[in-house]
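Hi D.,

Good news: the full-assembly prediction came through. Inputs first.
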Amino acid sequence: MSLLEVRELHVWFDLQEGRELHAVQGVSFGLDAGERFGLVGESGCGKTTTILGLMGLLPPTASVAGEVLVGGESILAGGESSVRSHRWNDIAMIFQGAMNALNPVKKVLWQIVEPMELHGIADGTQARRMAGDLLEMVGIPASAGERYPHEFSGGMRQRAAIAMALACQPKILLADEPTTALDVMVQAQILELLVGLSNDLGLALVLVTHDLPVVAQVCERAAVMYAGEIVEEGPTEALYHAPRHPYTRLLFAATPDLYGDEAVVSIPGAPPRLDRAIEGCAFRPRCDSSLDRCESEHPEFRAMGAGHRAACHLNDLPGEERAAREGARRAGSAAPAATPGGGAP
Amino acid sequence: MSAVQEPGLTEGLSVQSHAGFLRSVLRERKAAVVGLGIIAFFVVLSVVAPLVVPYSPNAQTCAVFAPPSARHWFGCDDGGIDLLSEIMQGGRISLLIGFTATVVSMILGGGIGIVSGYFGGWVDVTFMRIVDYLLVIPDLAFAMVISEVWGPSVFHVIVVIGILEWSGTARVIRAQVMSVKERVYVKRARAVGAGNGRVIFRHILPQVGPLLIANTVLTIAVAIYLETALAFLGLEDPSTTTWGTILEHAFARAAVSAGAWWAIVPDGIAITLLIMGCFLFGQAIEDALNPRLKVAHLSIRRWTLRTLVGGAAGMGVRPLVGRGPDAI
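Then the structure:
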């Protein structure tokens, strides 16, 4: 059984006049101890909402459906009281913009001790010693814990935020854009740290990001989200080399390649509004190889091979025809925006 | 896992505590030193007044409206009482009223501001409508009515000022709390499992604390001013000596037409000085609290433009702004 199992997670937000925004539409994934899983997609596709939802941290305007199992135990079933006992003990989180997750008027060590005290893991000298060890573990001298966050650099703050997430020895770590707003050197160090922690402590890591190279570097498996759904999930290698959804293919094409001379192709348009029902495939208006049935029929999320799943009607076509369609559209309508040869793997 | 040490880690940066904050305010802002000096002067004077007053502040020791002399530095009032002694004695009550009324209004204003901003909803609406009401009512008129109804007494004056002055503080604190409670670290604390009490006292209060202190100092000034005004209008217990009643007596007994300026001026200067001291100090704390001014590279106060001597073709670059002698 997986360590973390998310089944059919839905999140709705109440809007004015009784309308609703269906932000997360049946997301399912699972991961084992020590596994690193990436959740990618562009802004507003529900990545952060998904993990806030499974942590039970959404605002009162949100309603959540679905099941989140940690070690086989459903944590959302009992509402806040049942999540609370698991939060930070089993499943901890590094918040988006973690640099702001530190209270500017409290010493860093105090802030790492706080969750230990609240969860009754340790207090007093023992907690301070444990917090010091955690700081050392993330590469900050324990003595620096006596400083205030404003005396830390961006990278150190991020490290401190990671130490804070590890305070109660969780088994699962959710990292929401842990490297945004950091320069590439620091970013590389933080990623190295996260990989090291997941190896050393057997942490299951969910990495939420819109940065595909980061996922490729860190995660064994990844899921691509679009309009509140997972449209493709599989080993990172497979997603990169043999994507089975046009969105995945276009996302990778939109990532600059340092060594290749392929041009960066952007995906025209914007994700659909989620406050109304979407007919057919949500990606169809921006897709470069859509079929007629994409307009009316919602594609099913189906297995494509070992651990590889995707939701696209193109996968029903024979391999050659599929390749031809993708190629044709790219040479035709999408090409003017791109320079010659612009294409996907 | 290799831990790469961040640059700047080994530099011996000083840890900033609340005491350190106060010290840096005093070091960097002359106004703060002046303000604090004035406040300290009057506080010390009030404390030691009974021991050092040259004459009794209640008994006649010289002629009516005797002008300042070597024996009576500030002259005498309409009752032949030494004004220096009277001002020193009066400062005790004025400061007592100022400080106590401020404490009352800070507890009310800080508490209501935090509760209102933190919980929001109907709690917020209820308190803020009360604040609206108090903000709209003219302070002095309201204070006069209440003092008149309740009768003149030091205690009533304290209560009246306390009730009047909390509304502004509540607004300021509420706004700050609303902003602070949305910050990621507060949400993180809640996510970790901190309850309302812990979030308010451990996370939010330290954030708004310094602002509350700045407000307190500023409110002391307003409270002393209001006390003086009330006393001047005869709404305070006439048997107590405060800076306000000294003014009132001088005015009522026609010190002006008698040419006895000394019955009014020294007292007025004392009031003005103390209020100014409070403002200088309070304002300096408030300025220092603005985090955007604290960061060196964003500060407009610190940098100077220097003239380049012997630049290209012997031309110095003339500064456009700055503190240099060549500055325009």
